Amino acid sequence: MPHAYMSYTRDDAEVADLLVAELQTRGHTVWRDTANIADGQDWGEAIEGALNEAYAVVVLISANAAKSDWVKREVEHATPQKPVIAVQWEEVDLPAHLADLRSVSFLKVQRAAGIEQLQAYRDAMNELVEKLDEARPLRLRLQELEHSNADVRERAAIELGEIGDAEACDGLVGALGDPDADVRFAAAASIGKLRCTDARKALAGALDDTDPDVAAEAADGLGVIGVEEGIEPLVLHLGHRDRFVREAVITSLGLLGASEAASTLVDLMRNDPISTVREAATTALCRIDSSVARRALRRSKIDCSKVLAAASHEQ
């Protein structure tokens, strides 16, 4: 699971406990050696794996950390592949491997007292969370799916698809029920991009969306995801009144190799009033391995090699 990695020395464990608890309350999963290494697991391999999977490394800077070879190795392993954020807990002369890191100072927390100390801590923690949010935009985009402004929700749904992290799938599935059609459309498109296999049921439901563009995008997603469970709901929508939905449904049935739809597809290839729907049915039949499809294509003198080459070029 993606996480922020906490690098610290044993002498600073209590401070690390405080930071980890706060960050996790603020929505960031934090990995640390004392909590996330299973009994019997190789320590070095666990550390290396956790560093590789981290979206950011948080280094707790103290006099002990500045002298720690272990902290140095962790920082050097992480850079320059991912953000490393230094939390300056103590004022120390920094060695070269720590001197140029992006940093958040908690020094005012040490110097202040009472309300001023509390405010200094909040300010520093807000800055740290902001830097981690920059390294993990997925979290912010998921939050924005709940925003009151539909344009913000739509942009978030689009960007979640572009980020390319399957962890967004659950949030995007929820967005298929958004009251705004543009948000639902963006969510369906991103689900297809991410190939969210657990979204099949939600996409099948979206085939009945009141906005035909959303329904068409849901049909596309079922084909791209490529799960056989998508065939039955697609077949039920072959007669959709909207041409674009019919096209998308037909194309996805072809991608899924839905031989059970061959007879209906043959009828659409011959009789649908829309030429692009007829063309989609022809392409789908060329992709389906069934005697019904082969016989209809042969009788219509269709050269499937040319049809599929043209379809591949269009994609």
TL;DR of this structure?
The protein has 315 residues and is of the alpha/beta class. The chain has a 5-stranded parallel sheet, with helices on both faces.
Named CATH architecture of the largest domain = 3-Layer(aba) Sandwich
Helix content: 55-70%
Largest sheet: 5 strands, parallel
- Principal-axes geometry comes out as elongated
The radius of gyration over CA amounts to 27 Å
- CATH superfamily of the largest domain, by name, is Toll/interleukin-1 receptor homology (TIR) domain
Uncertain residue ranges: none
Mean pLDDT equals 91
**Quaternary structure:** single chain
Number of strands: 5
Cα-to-Cα separation, first versus last residue:
33 Å
Q: How many domains make up the 3D coordinates?
A: 3
Q: How large is the share of residues in beta strands? A: 5-15%
Could you name the CATH class of the largest domain?
Answer: Alpha Beta
Widest sheet, order of strands:
2-1-3-4-5
Q: What is the count of helical runs?
A: 20
Query: What's the helix-strand series?
Result: EHEHHEHHEHEHHHHHHHHHHHHHH
Task: Return the CATH topology of the largest domain.
Answer: Rossmann fold
